[in-house]
């Protein structure tokens, strides 16, 4: 009896393996939602084999972060395809080499080393979470290579080997806090996911509130992915019985529960406006605009920004990936960084690392959000905009800076980094110097 | 007074989510002893079923759309129950009494289900259909031959390769057809919106009670009554209890144990589907939804004591209330009111955040299990050794 069962079991498990192989096959084909187009096909100048420039694309194509990171890959691929269609860089086509970081930070480091050593890419576009960036940082520093990083982050870092095209806190969080203090109230409740970005962000906010006459009435952190927010809502009600501002740096699934249950508990945006720093167009779609309508977000770019460059960007993106897709801030930053790199290579006249690194500083680009410029501290100047969610899930821009704000990677509200700055154009200054 | 009621209500509403999620597992793990790590994924399937029902009802307009959730509950139950039935017949029944293998197999199944939801499209769906038709259909045909027993192994291997090959070929031929390869759900989370009558809340007791929470509490109670009635008052329930208590003897008395196993597992899975439907109103629906609940549900069943519904209820409510009291700082405030020493206050304020409350609850559960390793209501008698 048991003998028979075991045989049958073997058979079934082999069926299972076959089935999972089929599934995996489909995943690698369909999971990313895009396949690298042959760079030599249809280009202006036909290229011989090996006559292209290899760049690495290193994002999570599987795992929890795939949801967000695949959209960034779409934007990077679009920029590369556009550049290739216009004749490439230095007369050569760009060949993207995609690697999957699988939402696992050590894997990111491994794949980064693989891209550099084995594929001999000239630069890497990649990462989303701060954890993955911190994991690949030693690889890029050791090999003196080049990473372009597209997501807003907590700052407190300034590497010679990284170019950051997302916002630093002073280009996203600080203007939002100032605006809230002026328009929405002095009492703040801080909610965040329990990891480095929300914790650093909330440290900054607390210092800023203390300096500007606001008050932090409470703060709480949810473990990543946790969906039980009842205790937090009870705390908010207790701390702010007559309404007040909620500053939200939750990430991922917790946001969905938070907004759904806020509404159920009767915390409406007129009395309890929520300012989020990790909720963009894509997330609004997943949470449902019914729950978010009237709440706020702080970004540099929204799909609704009115510039000719953005109209073209949105139209091209929808034409390429489908009418139902939306564009958001990290995608725009990803799109920008490919072009900034291309301009730097063209100015340097080579893809060698050091000349490109030097040429990248000072490059400016007419981005969908407006003009941006790469600063000596390897971050870009950006326009800051506050948006309010409307019925269709896009944002009404309620406030924006006049021009662009310069990036400040070392935060001026945090004691340890107050007074420090970063400048890679001057060998005497470098990563961190007393300004 | 109203703070106390509010605290209890909030604790119970956390507890009811835990309970509805753990109810199916209490049956599958509690009664059958199957460590089903795919339980969360069965919930996830229920949540996706809710999403599909919602999208079917959307074009129908208002009076109908607000009722979609009523339809979604039985559909979620049926979808998860069918998948559960396939799992039991296809894999788990070969592994009864081998907990480690069951654990690995169900973990593998959970990975497969998650990836299935991410990449399922019409083509994949049809390919799997083609494979099943060829393989199982072929088996049925060949089984009629008189020398079946002798050629069984060779035929199965041959069929497996042939039908697998044909299905893969079919897949690759059609894989350029965009209409067929468009993913149903894709890797992104989808959005389930509660109907208008479930949004907002009532001020009946001097504090806001969200309708969604009330709905989940009522649904949990209904499920409990249903399960109780089924297990205690119906013929099949009697059989299930008999098989749980003594499989061999039940089998001798003519109870079809294999059928009972399949039914019990399907029931547990179906309840997971209902839970999925309920939590889709609170949180996000994505391939990883089930992962958020799996640890909590096991915790509830283990604390409650294996094979006892009352234990599961008490454990869920206890953990829910405790989590709320510690996490929201109510406990810390209570100690402030009775003027407890500063050290005690510091201690409770330190744990009064959501992440730290979890740590404390875990610690308490570990302590509890040291004192009562078999949970609140341990099974007595010989069955306890099984």
Automatic annotation (TrEMBL), chain A:
It comes from Waterburya agarophytonicola KI4. Transmembrane segments: none annotated. CDD domains: PBP1_FmdD-like (cd06355). This is Urea ABC transporter substrate-binding protein. InterPro entries: ABC_urea-bd_UrtA (IPR017777), Leu_Ile_Val-bd (IPR000709), Peripla_BP_I (IPR028082). Signal peptide: none annotated. PANTHER family: ALIPHATIC AMIDASE EXPRESSION-REGULATING PROTEIN, PTHR47628. GO terms for biological process: amino acid transport. It comes from the Bacteria.
TrEMBL record, chain B:
It is a multi-pass membrane protein. One of its GO terms (cellular component) is plasma membrane. It comes from the Bacteria. The chain crosses the membrane at residues 12-35, 67-87, 99-116, 122-142, 154-174, 211-231, 263-286, 298-326, 347-371. Keywords: Amino-acid transport, Cell membrane, Membrane, Transmembrane, Transmembrane helix, Transport. The keyword Membrane applies. InterPro entries: ABC_transp_permease, ABC_UrtB_bac, BCAA_transport_permease. CDD domains: TM_PBP1_LivH_like (cd06582). Pfam families: BPD_transp_2 (PF02653). One of its GO terms (molecular function) is transmembrane transporter activity. Its main location: membrane. GO terms for biological process: amino acid transport. It is found in: Cell membrane. Belongs to the binding-protein-dependent transport system permease family. LivHM subfamily. NCBIfam families: urea_trans_UrtB. This is Urea ABC transporter permease subunit UrtB. It comes from Waterburya agarophytonicola KI4. The lineage of its organism: Bacteria, Bacillati, Cyanobacteriota, Cyanophyceae, Pleurocapsales.
């Amino acid at each position: 009896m048991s003998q028979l069962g075991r045989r049958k079991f073997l058979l079934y498990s082999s069926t299972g393996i076959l089935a999972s192989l089929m599934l995996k096959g489909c995943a690698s084909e369909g999971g990313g939602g895009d396949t690298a187009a042959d760079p030599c096909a249809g280009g202006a100048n036909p290229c011989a084999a090996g006559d292209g420039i290899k760049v690495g694309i290193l994002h999570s194509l599987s795992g929890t972060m795939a949801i967000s990171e695949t959209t960034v890959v779409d934007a990077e691929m679009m920029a590369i395809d556009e550049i290739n269609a216009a004749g490439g860089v230095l007369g050569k086509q760009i060949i993207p080499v995609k690697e999957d970081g699988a939402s696992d930070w050590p894997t990111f480091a491994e794949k980064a080393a693989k891209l550099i050593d084995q594929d001999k890419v000239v630069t890497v576009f990649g990462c989303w979470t701060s954890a993955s960036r911190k994991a690949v940082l030693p690889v890029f520093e050791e090999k003196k290579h080049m990473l372009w990083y597209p997501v807003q982050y907590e700052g407190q870092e300034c590497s010679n080997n990284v170019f950051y095209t997302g916002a630093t806190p002073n280009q996203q969080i600080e203007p939002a806090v100032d605006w809230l203090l002026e328009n929405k109230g002095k009492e703040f409740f801080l909610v965040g996911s329990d990891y480095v970005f929300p914790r650093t962000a909330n440290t900054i906010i607390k210092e800023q509130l203390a300096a500007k006459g606001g008050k932090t009435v409470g703060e709480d952190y949810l473990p990543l992915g946790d969906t039980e927010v009842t205790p937090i809502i009870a705390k908010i009600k207790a701390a702010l019985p007559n309404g007040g501002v909620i500053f939200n740096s939750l990430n991922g699934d917790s946001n969905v529960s938070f907004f759904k249950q806020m509404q159920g508990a009767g915390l409406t945006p007129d009395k309890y406006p929520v300012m989020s720093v990790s909720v963009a167009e894509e997330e609004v779609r997943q949470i449902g605009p019914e729950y978010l309508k009237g709440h706020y977000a702080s970004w540099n770019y929204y799909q609704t920004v009115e510039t000719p460059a953005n109209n073209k960007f949105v139209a091209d993106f929808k034409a390429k990936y489908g009418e139902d897709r939306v564009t958001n801030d990290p995608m725009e930053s990803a799109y920008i960084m490919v072009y900034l790199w291309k301009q730097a290579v063209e100015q340097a006249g080579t893809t060698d690392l050091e000349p490109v690194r030097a040429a990248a500083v000072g490059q400016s680009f007419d981005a969908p959000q407006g003009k941006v410029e790469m600063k000596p501290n390897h971050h870009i100047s950006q326009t800051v905009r506050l948006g309010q969610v409307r019925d269709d899930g896009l944002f009404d821009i309620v406030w924006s800076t006049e021009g662009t704000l310069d990036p400040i990677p070392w935060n001026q509200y945090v004691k340890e980094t107050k007074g420090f700055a970063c400048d890679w154009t001057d060998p005497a200054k470098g990563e961190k110097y007393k300004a | 007074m109203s703070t106390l009621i509010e605290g209890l209500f909030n604790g119970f509403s956390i507890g009811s989510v835990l309970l509805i999620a753990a109810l199916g597992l209490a049956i599958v793990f509690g009664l059958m002893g199957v460590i089903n790590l795919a339980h969360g994924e069965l919930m996830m399937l229920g949540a996706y079923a809710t999403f599909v029902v919602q999208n079917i009802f959307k074009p129908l307009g208002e009076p109908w759309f607000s009722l979609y959730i009523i339809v979604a509950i039985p559909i979620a139950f049926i979808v998860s129950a069918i998948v559960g039935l396939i799992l039991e017949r296809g894999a788990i029944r070969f592994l009864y009494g081998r907990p480690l293998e069951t654990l690995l197999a169900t973990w593998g199944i959970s990975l497969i289900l998650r990836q299935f939801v991410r990449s399922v499209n019409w083509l994949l769906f049809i390919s799997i259909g083609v494979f099943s038709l060829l393989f199982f259909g072929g088996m049925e045909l060949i089984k009629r031959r008189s020398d079946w027993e002798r050629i069984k192994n060779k035929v199965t291997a041959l069929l497996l390769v042939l039908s697998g090959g044909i299905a893969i070929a079919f897949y690759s031929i059609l894989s350029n057809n965009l209409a067929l390869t468009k993913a149903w759900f894709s890797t992104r989370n989808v959005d389930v919106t509660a109907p208008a009558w479930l949004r907002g809340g009532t001020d009946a007791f001097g504090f806001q009670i969200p309708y969604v929470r009330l709905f989940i509490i009522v649904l949990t109670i209904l499920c409990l009554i249903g399960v109780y009635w089924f297990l205690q008052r119906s013929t099949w329930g009697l059989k299930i209890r008999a098989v749980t208590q003594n499989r061999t003897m039940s089998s001798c008395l003519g109870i079809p144990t294999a059928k009972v196993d399949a039914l019990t597992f399907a029931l547990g899975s179906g309840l997971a589907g209902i839970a999925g439907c309920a939590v889709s109103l609170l949180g996000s629906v994505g391939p990883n939804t089930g992962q958020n609940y799996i640890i909590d549900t096991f915790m509830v069943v283990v604390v409650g004591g294996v094979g006892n519904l009352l234990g599961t209820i008490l454990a869920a409510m206890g953990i829910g209330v405790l989590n709320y009291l510690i996490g929201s700082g109510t406990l810390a405030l209570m100690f402030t009111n009775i003027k407890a020493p500063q050290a005690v206050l510091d201690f409770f304020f330190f744990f009064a955040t959501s992440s730290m409350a979890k740590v404390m609850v875990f610690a308490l559960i570990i302590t509890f299990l040291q004192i009562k390793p078999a949970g609140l209501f341990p099974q007595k008698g010989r069955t306890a050794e099984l």
